[in-house]
Design a protein that fits this description.
The structure holds 2 protein chains of 2 kinds.
Chain A lengths: L5 E2 L1 H17 L35 E6 L14 H10 L1 E2 L1 E4 L2 E4 L2 E7 L4 E6 L15 H11 L7 H4 L1 E8 L2 E6 L6 H4 L6 E2 L2 H6 L16 E7 L3 E6 L13 E6 L3 H9 L5 E2 L4 H9 L3 E16 L9 H10 L2 H9 L3 E3 L23 H10 L9 E6 L3 H16 L4 E6 L1 H10 L4 E7 L4 H9 L16 H13 L3 H18 L2 E14 L2 E2 L15 E2 L2
Parallel strand pairs in A: 2-13, 2-14, 17-18, 17-19
Antiparallel strand pairs in A: 1-6, 3-10, 4-5, 6-7, 7-9, 8-9, 11-12, 12-13, 14-20, 15-19, 15-20, 16-20, 21-22
Helix pairs in contact in A: 9-11, 10-12, 14-15, 15-16
Chain B lengths: L3 H30 L4 H6 L5 H11 L5 H13 L13 H36 L4 H15 L2 H15 L15 H35 L2 H8 L4 H37 L5 H10 L3 H29 L8
Helix pairs in contact in B: 1-12, 5-6, 5-8, 5-10, 6-8, 7-8, 7-10, 8-10, 10-11, 10-12, 11-12
Classes of the chains: A alpha+beta, B mainly alpha.
């Protein structure tokens, strides 16, 4: 790429920084806020503030209880968050996010072409693959990894815009996109976009899904995995950064039952547990031997609506339901206050947050009645059905409370409780009027909105052209994708949020916090908005 | 020359074949009747259609049902239960690695229950109407009423957290480290065995009471035999129906282990089953359920055999 055709790194940072700032905005400290009764303590810092005298100590094994069984460890084909956590500690992405901005991981520098279609990454020359591969990583490994993960179009639309991945030097990789695609850069900080060595993959069979003993360049190396029992990671001695990782090993045990997980932590059987429920959070926080790590807004709950299904195709019905909903009550009941009522996925401190002001559809049963009256009572002799499941507490509570809240506004409704797999199939197949749903937080707004609305996406909300401002909303989503200037994108998504609030193709309910429990002598946890626990910053006093 | 017992067992084994065949149809059919596309559950709502299609093809879900079934049975008979879609493990290997754990847990529950039930039943029956009997009866009622998932959590909080005497989660094989193994198995064993202990206590008590009222015991007593010997005679006879109950309960222990393994995070077959259900790992699920049912059938045959052995006159009929 010619010098003059490339924008400098700073310009690029401003283009994507907003997303990363949003990602980091909710980070808290070690989760022991000064006011133990406060459930909405403001974020303090992204590092563990309770470091004792003497500073970090190397050595020791951290025993961690995971919220579910590991479902496959092939870095390029894992389907669960817990598997991502393992992969993220063993293998590395090109970039990551630190202190509110994209930061290098395997890439030390990058440039984006003026046309927004070429991304050139300069790679570190010090990255080494774990034994038995035991060699330096080069640009060819990056090319190989991206070809492997996307074989037979496995990455779908995420990589559809990528025309070519080329090694333009021993330590330089260039991605060429067929068209500008703003969310692309932020993907690169996540699993499965990690770099692996071809020889190790081939050794284990080669096919996607067969690389179950991952080898990478990360601070920890895979040691052994006894499915259901434990997985052990050990420190990679040749890791390129000094004093990283601090721990000698991490031993992971799946403890799927939430009560047992918290008991295991309190009983000292493990040093850390992921996935603490809101109802257990105060127990962990108030126990002298344990502490709570809290990350605000890792999950976004909403009422998904099929806008082509009567009576939900009537915007007045959707607006009335939005006013009947008491979000605060749902947050209190579903996550014991460890979350926030939300009218959009992005919190106030995020650049993607749009201040709706007084237009926000707050809890107002009278207003709900009025809207229906004005629309000629479309819900007379109608019973609304809210689909939900019992596997995910936020969804279950949202549906149950909403039915009661709708009754207060004179709207007859019922829940239909489904098995999770059935609900998911109904969601994808459009077989629903409304359903309580939730999705993990996503850094880039495109990842949330495009699939919900746009006809070329999955269009889960079936927001057809006959719906108000449909064409404008499609256009905004297209622009949000292709525009690479951050400020422009903020404008675009602000207008989009305004229209969502107006026409309610879905109704945002809450942002739930991600909670982890720690023994009192565990330090260095850095919660962030991505669901990956980074073990390499952690240490224990023991 | 086959003995009557052998003939009986062979007959029972032959009967087991159609049962297992029926079971295989049921497992195969039920899993596929559940609405919801496993490919979507595995890959998530926003998975690209091409990938969904690839998964369906890999699972054989795009084949007609009879073809899928014949493939499944043909492989299963050869001991090939397929490979897990989720993590590419061989199902039979996964089961083989989990089976000993579940068997140890079940054995622990079995041991706990008999250790409690036999003395409790005997004491209750021989002290009829007294406070000891009240304790036995009370235990018999409480034990069957308390759900094991609740009992497990309470034991775990009491002994694992508050008193901190025993480990809360995980498992160590008693073969590798007997002391640690027993420590890990104690709470799950009690949780699992309590319900069975209660059932067996009540059963033993009532059978023994009935037996103690029988005429022949008076004749024994008149011959000058001591009360302890009388009790031994009575107990031996009372045990015949109790053995049946114990055998049937053993099957329930296998079922109960699913819950207990989840509560205590024990990596046994039960956890394998729950994980397979949650991730809709059809192939794993089929294999695990098949092994569970095979065990049930096998336990029943063993119980019938034991019954026949104890009382050949009955010809194995209960």
């Amino acid at each position: 790429m010619a010098e003059d055709s490339a924008t400098d790194r700073r310009t690029f940072l401003s283009a994507v920084g907003g997303a990363a700032a949003a990602a980091m905005a909710g980070c808290t400290g070690d989760g022991t806020p000064t006011d133990p009764t406060s459930t909405t303590a403001p974020p303090s810092s992204s590092t563990d503030v309770s470091t004792p005298e003497g500073g970090p100590q190397p050595g020791g094994t951290l025993r961690v209880g995971f919220e579910s069984e590991l479902t496959g460890l092939d870095p390029h084909r894992t389907e669960s968050v817990v598997s991502w956590v393992v992969v993220f500690n063993v293998c590395e992405t090109l970039i990551t996010f630190e202190d509110g901005a994209p930061a290098g991981r395997l890439a030390t520098d990058w440039e984006i072409g003026e046309d927004g279609r070429t991304y050139t990454f300069t790679l570190t020359e010090d990255a080494r693959f774990h034994p038995p591969v035991d060699r330096g990583m080069t640009a060819e490994d990056v090319v190989y990894s991206f070809e492997r993960m996307n074989q037979d179009g496995a990455m779908g639309s995420d990589l559809a815009a990528v025309e070519a991945v080329e090694a333009t030097g021993e330590y330089e990789v260039t991605f060429t996109l067929a068209e500008t695609f703003a969310p692309f850069f932020n993907f690169l900080g996540r699993v499965p976009w990690v770099i692996v060595p071809e020889e190790a993959v081939e050794e284990q069979g080669g096919d996607l899904g067969e690389f179950q003993e991952p080898v990478g360049t990360g601070p920890f190396q895979f040691d052994e995995h006894e499915p259901g029992d434990h997985l052990t990671l050990t420190a990679f001695d040749d890791y390129r950064a000094d004093d990283v990782p601090l721990l000698d090993a991490v031993e992971i045990t799946p403890i799927p039952d939430a009560d047992s997980r918290v008991s295991a932590l309190r009983g000292g059987d493990v040093d850390m547990v992921r996935g603490v429920g809101g109802s257990d959070a105060d127990v962990v926080r108030n126990d002298a031997e344990t502490k709570l790590s809290r990350q605000r807004g890792t999950e976004w709950g909403q009422l998904h609506i099929n806008c082509s299904e009567p009576p939900w195709d009537d915007p007045a019905v959707r607006r009335a339901v939005a006013h009947a909903m008491d979000r605060g009550a749902i947050v209190d009941a579903a996550v014991s206050g460890y979350g926030q009522p939300a009218w959009q996925p992005y919190a106030e401190e995020s650049v993607w947050h749009y201040d709706l002001g007084d237009s926000r559809r707050t809890h107002d049963p009278e207003r709900a009645r009025q809207i229906l009256d004005d629309a000629g009572n479309p819900l007379e002799s109608e019973t609304l059905t809210i689909k939900t499941n019992t596997r995910y507490g936020l969804m279950e509570t949202t549906a149950e409370l909403l039915v009661a809240q709708l009754a207060q506004a004179g709207i007859d409704a019922e829940t239909e409780v489904l098995e999770w797999g059935t609900q998911l199939s109904d969601f994808v197949g459009g077989n629903f009027g409304a359903m309580a749903f939730s999705v993990p937080f996503k850094i880039d707004p495109d990842r949330h909105y495009y699939g919900f609305i746009h006809p070329e996406g999955t269009q889960f909300n079936h927001y057809g052209e006959d719906q108000p401002d449909a064409q404008r909303m499609y256009e905004l989503l297209e622009q949000g994708r292709s525009e690479t200037d951050r400020d422009e994108r903020v404008e675009i998504y602000s207008e989009f949020e305004k229209l969502v609030n107006e026409h309610c193709p879905w109704i945002s309910v809450a942002r739930a916090d991600g909670l982890a429990g720690l023994r009192a002598d565990v330090y260095g946890v850095q919660p962030w908005l991505l669901p990956y626990t980074r073990f390499w910053t952690m240490w224990t006093e023991d | 020359m086959v003995s009557r017992l052998q003939a009986f067992l062979i007959r029972r084994l032959l009967w087991a074949l159609p049962v297992l065949a029926l079971v295989s149809v049921a497992i195969f059919g039920l899993i596929r009747l559940v609405p919801g596309d496993p490919a979507i559950v595995m890959l998530g709502a926003d998975a690209p259609p091409a990938q969904l299609a690839a998964v369906r093809a890999e699972l054989g879900l795009d084949e007609p049902l009879p073809v899928q079934y014949v493939d499944y049975v043909a492989d299963a008979v050869r001991g090939d239960l397929g490979r897990s879609y989720v993590d590419d493990r061989e199902v039979s290997a996964a089961i083989a690695s989990r089976l000993p754990t579940t068997l140890f847990l079940t054995a622990a529950g079995f041991l706990v229950s008999l250790t409690i039930a036999i003395p409790a039943g005997l004491l209750s029956a021989t002290n009829r109407g007294e406070w000891l009997d009240g304790v036995g009866l009370g235990f018999g009622l409480l034990g069957v009423s308390v759900p094991n998932f609740w009992l497990g959590v309470v034991l775990l909080l009491l002994f694992g957290v508050t008193l901190d005497w025993l480990p809360v989660a995980g498992y160590v094989s008693p073969l590798e480290d007997p002391v640690a193994g027993i420590r890990y198995l104690l709470l799950p064993g009690i949780t699992l065995g309590t319900a069975m202990a209660a059932v067996v206590t009540r059963m033993l008590r009532s059978e023994l009471l009935e037996e103690l009222r029988r005429e022949y015991l008076n004749a024994v007593r008149m011959k000058g035999v001591g009360e302890l010997r009388v009790l031994t005679h009575a107990t031996k006879n009372a045990f015949i129906p109790v053995v049946t109950v114990i055998g049937m309960q053993f099957g329930y222990l296998l079922g109960g282990s699913i819950v207990v393994e989840t509560v205590f995070s024990i990596p046994g077959m039960g956890r394998l089953l729950i994980d397979a259900i949650q991730s809709r790992d059809y192939i794993m699920l089929q294999g695990v359920v098949l092994v569970y049912t095979t065990f049930f059938v096998a336990v029943n045959i063993v119980v019938d055999g034991a019954y026949f052995y104890l009382n050949p006159k009955l010809g194995g009929e209960r």
